[in-house]
Amino acid sequence: MINYFSNPNRFLKLTEKLLPWLVGLTILFFLVGVYFGLLYSPADYQQGETVRIMYVHVPAAWLALSCYAFMAAMGALSLTYKHPLAGIAARSAAPIGAGFTVIVIITGSLWGKPIWGTWWVWDARLSSVLVLFFLYLGHIALSHAFENPLRGIRASAILALVGLVNIPIIKFSVDWWNTLHQPASLTRFDAPAIDPSMLIPLIIMALAFFLYFLTILLVRIKSELTSQKIRAINIKMIK
Amino acid sequence: MLNRIGLLIIKDVKLALQGASDTGMTFVFLLLACTLFQFSIGPDQTLLIKVGGGVIWVVALLATILSLERLFITDFEDGTLEQYFLSPMSLVFFALAKAISHWLTTGLLVIISAPIIALLYSLPNEVFLPLFLSMVIGTPILSLIGTLGAALTLGAKRSGVLMPLIILPLYIPVLIFGTLVIYNVMYGHNYNSFLIVLIGLLLLSLALAPWATACALRQAIE
Prior knowledge:
The structure holds two protein chains of two kinds.
Chain A: H1 8-40, H2 54-81, H3 84-116, H4 124-143, H5 149-181, H6 196-238
Helix pairs in contact in A: 1-6, 2-3, 2-5, 2-6, 3-4, 3-5, 3-6, 4-5
Chain B: H1 2-18, H2 20-41, H3 45-66, H4 70-77, H5 80-86, H6 91-120, H7 128-152, H8 159-186, H9 192-221
């Protein structure tokens, strides 16, 4: 599998075939998920209609985290095997992950305003998502900071792996910081066991987000490969 | 091996002492930044005592970053780095030596100036020992992670802006546990557990950071 894709052209061919299907599936899942989430599922007995923000907020949070893991895994592949495609995949995934993180933060504060009464609290979860956002930004900045794109990919791959080691430590320390600095604040908000009528739309939305991630990732990798080709042609023309 | 690391450290420290004004600048920066905080917060003594512990650590992080940019750049530009790469000594030890010399020239200054800042913020007397201990354990971590950041951004465009963006998020655990030590002393709690966590972080970064730094340096030379 890994060796198979070391030829970018093979990957491009497969992408061409897959993309229309992925786009169709993404739209389908989003339509179904939005219908179930906004219309079919019940309002919460405490939070009312605002609970529907969850159907965007939670899937985005899941993907924001798993996208970082994906990025780190691709980074490891590109470092160990010097795999050409893995580095490009990591570099293409970073802005998508950062986008999901922004969605999490924005929907979170929109949700926080009616429930907690403020746009932002320095709660453990909020703070660690904010740090995750900064980690993404660092990764993006580093991967574009060099004249030689390969150097950017390698450096940011190392950074992603370092970040992967650090994320649990940061999460752990922020949790500790939070419990000691503001005990029993209004943000103690533990979701009770979720009812199937809400769980099913949530899962559909999560799948929709995942398909969306996959689609955008493939499109971004494709355009990156194309721009590499253009660069190569330009260099030949100059010679 | 230890001999060579020692030689490298001595060379770097000597170079730093020759440009003593640079090292002095870090010290001035620390005091200046604290003064700025004081001006922005106001002279309210109770408030200053409350924020003092946090300010010391934030300023320590910023001061560490200040001197990181020059860490590899001269060796990189005049080709010395390639010689180290070709020499039989592993780049891991080279990275470790760099981290140690960075700590000797910056971390020590931070440790020395911490009590002065604590005085300026009129922190209670019982804070001084824990503050010193947390700084002694914490600043090497900052140097170790910092060398990694310096190696990653080596040869980048605008590395001076890029480095804080990369390193500061990684500094957060040190900042949290460092300040927790101080605040727990001030509120009369036991702070040993936080020092132990800091030691754990130090050991972890001691094991991983030089290795990752060497990896990053190799990419920079290739």
